[in-house]
Design a protein that fits this description.
The chain is mainly alpha-helical. It is built from 7 helices and 5 strands; from the N terminus they run αααβαβαβαββα.
Length: about 170
């Protein structure tokens, strides 16, 4: 299974690998979503230093969109738990796209909502698949290496950092 794929794509993959398991995405969601929320309630899943970066970008009037393969409900819940809702202009979820990352559709839709050309945007990713999507959309991309995640070395980000503080120090 590849990290960073959309919810719809993960369901299709699980259904193929485990026939007779879940018949619908809603069945799988009913089991997995409470487990994810319990995990995220006790674990900070937001990028380390993200709140600081978002505050910095907001102070400079940057527009920000979340592009994720998660459902809109999952994204909004995490934005709320992180306390960063005021910084986020738009959300692109798996419900808004026909195919997930590495396809650039989500990023292109996000840029469209912001009315900003992709070449003027920066994506922050923690997975190869997301970097590929951002680059295919024509964006610059910062790969944030997350402790405990599998190594991400099959991509060419514009920047590779251990923390978002490190990214801020570059500018």
């Amino acid at each position: 299974m590849q990290f960073g794929r959309s919810w719809k794509e993960m369901f299709a993959d699980i259904k193929e690998r485990f026939p007779g398991g879940y018949e619908t995405p809603d069945e799988m969601k009913a089991v997995s979503e409470p487990l994810f929320y319990e995990y995220s309630r006790n674990t900070d899943i937001i990028f380390p230093d993200a709140r600081k970066l978002l505050a910095h970008l907001e102070a400079h009037h940057a527009k920000m969109t979340v592009v994720s393969g998660s459902t809109r409900q999952q994204i909004l819940k995490q934005v709320q738990l992180a306390g960063v809702g005021a910084c986020i202009t738009n959300v692109i979820s798996c419900e808004d796209i026909s195919i997930g990352k590495p396809n650039p559709e989500g990023y292109l839709k996000g840029c469209g909502l912001l009315k900003i050309p992709p070449r003027e945007c920066i994506a922050f990713e923690d997975k190869d698949i997301g970097v590929h999507a951002a680059k295919a959309a024509g964006m610059r991309c910062c790969l944030v290496v997350r402790p405990g995640n599998p190594p991400q070395s099959n991509c060419l980000p514009d920047w590779k950092v251990e923390s978002l503080d490190e990214f801020l120090e570059l500018f």
